[in-house]
Specification:
InterPro entries: Cyt_c/b562. This is Cytochrome c. It comes from Mucilaginibacter ginsenosidivorans. GO terms for molecular function: electron transfer activity; heme binding; iron ion binding. The termini are far apart. By secondary structure, the protein is mainly alpha-helical. The relative contact order is 0.11. The chain is elongated, with a radius of gyration of 28 Å. It is built from five helices and no strands. The longest helix has about 35 residues. Helix 2 packs antiparallel against helix 5, helix 3 runs antiparallel to helix 4 and helix 4 runs antiparallel to helix 5. The chain has two domains: about 40 residues; about 90 residues, Oxygen-evolving enhancer protein 3 (PsbQ), four-helix up-down bundle (Four Helix Bundle (Hemerythrin (Met), subunit A)), CATH 1.20.120.290. The structure holds heme C. The site of heme C has 23 residues, from helix 2 and helix 5.
Length: about 160
């Protein structure tokens, strides 16, 4: 009987030891995955902003050319980039003010639905002002966004039609 008890105890001890080993391996894997995650490339706020800048410029030429499907696409790209900023730039306190552009985005949406160039131009000016207001509120007033004066790219057509 004594032998059986000691044997069972030995088995329990061995399996616990095995468990610890598994835990150690798992912890090691978690640590190395965490390390890899920390080194994964994430675009910074400035990089996202350059994307926003490009969409802002394309949106203007789409709108003034009454290319409403393209304008709709570009304004949604700005919205998606803003969502990415909220998700990936949590280390930047400035992001708290990003909602400042929401009303202008809604006005642009409305202008696109109405297919009204006049309404679009006004909403676009509001959008541009809200970009600059956020920059001013966050010590980036030197990044001044304007209504574009020239095409952002030369290899894309902004006039409607396939
Ligand atoms: C959170 C408020 C906020 C809003 C809204 C905002 N920006 Fe910015 N923007 C910033 C901050 C902060 C920076 C500086 C980022 C950095 O440190 O690299 C910046 C930088 C920029 C830059 C400079 C990027 C570079 O590296 O050259 C551009 C261009 C820019 N924004 C365009 C825009 C446009 C266009 C809009 C509006 C459609 C806009 N931003 C709206 C906060 C904002």
């Amino acid at each position: 009987m004594k032998i059986i008890i000691s044997l069972s105890l030995a088995i329990v001890l061995v399996s616990c030891g095995q468990g610890n080993n598994d835990m150690a391996t798992l912890q090691h894997q978690v640590d190395s995955l965490q390390k890899q995650l920390n080194h994964t490339y994430k675009p910074g706020l400035g990089e996202f902003m350059m994307g926003v800048q490009e969409h802002h410029a394309k949106l203007w030429f789409a709108g003034i050319n009454q290319n409403w499907p393209l304008a709709d696409f570009e304004v949604h790209e700005i919205g998606e980039t803003v969502d990415d900023i909220k998700q990936y730039c949590t280390d930047r306190p400035e992001v708290k003010s990003i909602g400042i552009i929401d009303p202008a985005i809604s006005s642009i949406d409305a202008a696109i639905k109405q297919k009204s160039v006049e309404q679009f131009k006004k909403a676009f000016t509001d959008l541009t002002n809200s970009c600059n207001n956020c920059h001013k509120d966050n010590q980036h007033g030197f990044n001044v966004i304007t209504i574009p004066t020239g095409l952002p790219v030369e290899n894309q057509r902004f006039k409607p039609g396939q």
